[in-house]
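Suppose a classmate hands you a notebook page containing two proteins, each written out with its sequence and a corresponding row of structure tokens. How would you begin to make sense of it? This section walks through that situation. The first entry is reproduced here exactly as it would appear on such a page.
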Amino acid sequence: MTPQPKKPQILVVDDHPANRLAYQTVLEPDYAVFLAESGRQALELCQRMEFAVILLDVRMPGMDGYETAVELRRRKQTLYTPIVFTSAIDQSLAHVNRGFVVGATDYIFSPVDPEFLRFKVATYSQMYLRHEELVRQIDRLNELIHSLRSAIEADASLDQSLRSRIRELDGLLVDLKRQAIAAY
């Protein structure tokens, strides 16, 4: 997991150039916006970069949004990335439910009010960034526990209470990992 740059990175996936431009125009003041015109192109971008939020059109030729979401959820790098489906056509409850089944975080309908879009992206971006920071803290705590274990093994005379404190840290680490997973 690589830290997001100063401006969180957002991926907009839509086969219609006008839609991509509209989303980009609304979001670019606050985000680094990347554009993909197909599900395949989105998957390629996600292999090279991390995104705080993915806006994903449901209907696209070739690989549609549902298929793209399934592939994104299979990958470790995008397992927890918020995916917001966008659609002007597929607004029925059955389509919305299908979106959630394949891994959508949310579903918004076009045309999208610019303020509503900014609000949604800000909310999911902050969730993603908080999760990313929690994972970094878990990694740092894991490194600390590892170094303490190494110090104990190197000096057998260390006090039993130190060993007990390390067990407490292990328990805290397990709880943090559970919280990170439960947060999503």
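The notebook's second entry, a different protein, reads as follows.
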Amino acid sequence: MPLDYSNETAGTTDIAFLKRPALNITGDTQDIILNGGGPGVETIKLLLLAGDKLSSMFGPQYSLVALDPRGVGNSGPDLSCFPKNPAGEALWQASVGERVADSTDDVGLRQLFAIQTATGKWCSKVHRNGPGRYATTHAIAEDILHFTELQAAANGYVNLISRVYDGC
């Protein structure tokens, strides 16, 4: 996918999609595109872990399509906060990682908030002029639209969806 849909000379990145086919093989089926939200939710992993439950919730006429948003899981660009420093990344993961806050511990909540705030500032600095500018909500929405357009074309529907850029 283009890094920037309004400037395709910026390069491309890989976006990971996984489709779980509909169970209803006798009738028409439709796709439901899943995005686990975020930041940082690996939607493909979510589909692999909870696909049976999701299929039963939505019904057999729907295929489930998961995408890992930009910079998450199997999708690019690489948004490591420690580029070219795997030892620094490993140290950060071991010391901070994905801590779960104890909502009854005021001191622990404050410490976790301070750590996450510092991490956010550090990562923002690392990616200010780098690939992070291509991993926005707008870009992910464009990836979903692009996938939808490709699926529509593959199913024989052309010119159903038109791209509109409003300068976002």
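A careful reader of the second entry would note: Residues 164-168 have pLDDT under 50 and may be disordered.
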